[in-house]
Amino acid sequence: MKNLTVVGSGVMGRGIAYVAALGGFNVYLQDIQEENLEKAKTYIEVEMTKSAEKGFLTFAQVENALKNIHYTSLLETAAKEADIVIEAVFELMELKVEIFKKLDELCPKHTILATNTSTMSPTEIAAQTSRPEKCIAMHFFNPVHKMKLIELIRGLETSDETVEMAKAVGQKLGKETVEINEFPGFVTSRMNCLIGNEAMNLLMEGVASAHDIDKAMKLGLNHPMGPLELADLVGLDTRLRNMEYLYKTLGEKYRPCPLLIKYVKAGRLGRKSGAGFYQY
């Protein structure tokens, strides 16, 4: 397992590429938009340099890691020698299926195909390929270089060998892993979406301010980040897509808060747009 490809250079994709390069993988980061690749390259270089200046990394580690990352807009180039591909695009089933079909055609037969999804079915995605036993979900957390966990979610036909190889990749990335049998929302997203949605309902109902809701969760329940802060970090559009999927698959208790829907319609998407439940 030497060659790791990441498809999608957004917040999650660039974060996965960052830790993979530090972990010693030969990394290809692919995105169809050259502009996105340039932003990802700048982000990775700046964040690694900051970490070295603070003493978390050595400058030699940074130099070696940056040499390990290759940027390309061509999926064929990124996939042709991959041992594992981690897809990290938007939470849209149609898009993920389309990418997996292409990867199945382009990648070597031994390549593991992983999706970084927080809610969606790896079984459904894998069924569109000729290698469902080599497909798995690897759910990373944001920010990837700081968060210690990867959820490994088995699809219906995911092999034991694939799970073990995914665990080995996680270990090489310096992460802890938990193994989960597929069910909508897995473990963390089911819990997190409920907490976040209830926080939004509290805000909408005027029970407390966003600041005080988050403060109560941090100081009263020892959460490292408040649920509204976290939703802004993840992106309110992403959270809404997750909630809509869970509502569709798990029922009424996951109905998205009307305030979340309103904010997304208004373009208040959180940190990335400059405004969400807070101003940035």
Automatic annotation (TrEMBL):
Asked whether the UniProt record includes Oxidoreductase among its keywords, one would answer: yes
Q: Where is the 3-hydroxyacyl-CoA dehydrogenase C-terminal domain positioned along the sequence? A: 185-280
Record keywords: Nucleotide-binding included? no
Instruction: Show the InterPro entries listed in the entry.
Output: 3-OHacyl-CoA_DH (IPR022694), 3-OHacyl-CoA_DH_NAD-bd (IPR006176), 3HC_DH_C (IPR006108), 6-PGluconate_DH-like_C_sf (IPR008927), 6PGD_dom2 (IPR013328), NAD(P)-bd_dom_sf (IPR036291)
Question: Its pathway?
Answer: Lipid metabolism; butanoate metabolism
The residues that cross the membrane are none
Alphabetically sorted, this entry's keywords are:
Oxidoreductase
Where does the 3-hydroxyacyl-CoA dehydrogenase NAD binding domain lie? 4-182
Q: Which family does it belong to?
A: Belongs to the 3-hydroxyacyl-CoA dehydrogenase family.
State the protein's name.
3-hydroxyacyl-CoA dehydrogenase
